[in-house]
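Troubleshooting entry. The earlier prediction with zinc ion gave an output that would not parse, so I re-checked the input for stray whitespace and re-submitted. Clean input:
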Amino acid sequence: MTSRQSRSSVTDKASSEGTGEVWLCVKCRKEFKDSNSCLLECERCAEHYCTKCMKIKDTEYDFLNERNDIHWYCDKCEPKVLRSIQLDKEIKKKLDIFWAKVDDRMSQVNKVIESVKENTNVKVQAVMDEMKTIKIDIQGQSNELESLKKELKNEVKVELARKT
Ligand SMILES: [Zn+2]
Ligand SMILES: [Zn+2]
């Protein structure tokens, strides 16, 4: 058997028993009625093909029926499906490259954010230092003021003492 992926959903018992449905092979135009009709449904175009037209052996057909994970496409659809699988792969590859770039960008942005944070900390530190200096200045000025007051008081005392 080739690597062609196959499956028949037509022969699912639930969908075919007692419904009186009839399936037509698009190649030989033969009608099939029961659940063991040996028909394959293309998963892309949903057309039906009999195993004779598709030259699929009974054992292969049974295998395909047992495996629901295997997909089957008709001759017309298979090349298109393969092409789209290939496109999917190409798109995935492009997406991988895209995401790698995004990751790269993100780490760059993070680096910038980190450096901004550091700079901000430096700035905050500088402001704090300045505040301290201002505080010391104010403290110094009020100390000066205190001593001025004291001096004034003393002078007043001296003046008063002189007058009496
Ligand atoms: Zn047929
Ligand atoms: Zn098809």
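This one parsed fine. Strands lie at 23-24, 31-32, 39-41, 48-50.
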